[in-house]
Amino acid sequence: MQINLTVNGKARASEVEDRTLLVYYLREQLGLTGAHVACDTSSCGACTVHVDGVAVKSCTLLAAQADGCQVTTIEGLASGNDLHPLQQGFKECHGLQCGFCTPGMIMTAADLLNTNPHPSETEIRVALEGNICRCTGYHNIVKAIQWAAEHQAVPA
User: Fold this and answer.
1) Is there a contact between 51 and 41 (Cβ–Cβ < 8 Å)?
2) Could you say which of 37, 66, 69, 111 has the lowest number of CB atoms within 10 Å?
């Protein structure tokens, strides 16, 4: 089937099989490998992307369901060489170790900061409940999100 969507600000028209999951479309057809495939059950959050501005787990969404939507992946957060405040926060606060969960953590956190620009530690931890990290223990991930909240651009 034919789908038309906007990915990271770029219009995309593609042929996909009806059963193609969004995560596989992004990775295999568009070469955007930031969303990781891990559990295929929406348990880990490594595949999180934004669809029409909302964080979704792309391993449980068909590419056809995103037809006509705006999709943002981790690759679409940075502006040229300027990292998104969350990407910079993860760097500054050592919010990653192996990095496998990092794109999903950042995309989930970006959704949180879009709706709650100054979340408490508890609100951050609740927002991350659907994302699993096996390396860090979450302490520095929370600190990275707090750093980003303090350093994000404030709309005029």
Assistant:
1) no
2) 37
CATH number of the structural domain 85-151: 1.10.150.120
- Residue 115: exposure state from Cβ atoms within 10 A (0-12, 13-18, ≥19): exposed
Quote the DSSP letter at residue 76. G
Please say whether the dihedral angle defined by the alpha carbons of residues 115, 119, 123 and 127, taken in this order, is positive or negative.
Answer: positive
Residue 145, both tokens? 């999100």
Decide: 48 and 58 in contact? Cβ < 8 Å.
Answer: yes
The CATH number of 2-76, from 2.30.30.50, 3.10.20.30, 3.40.50.11540, 3.30.70.890, is: 3.10.20.30
**CA dist list (Å): 61 to 23, 110, 121, 134:** 8, 19, 30, 24
d(CA 78, CA 1): 31
| pTM across the whole model | 0.94
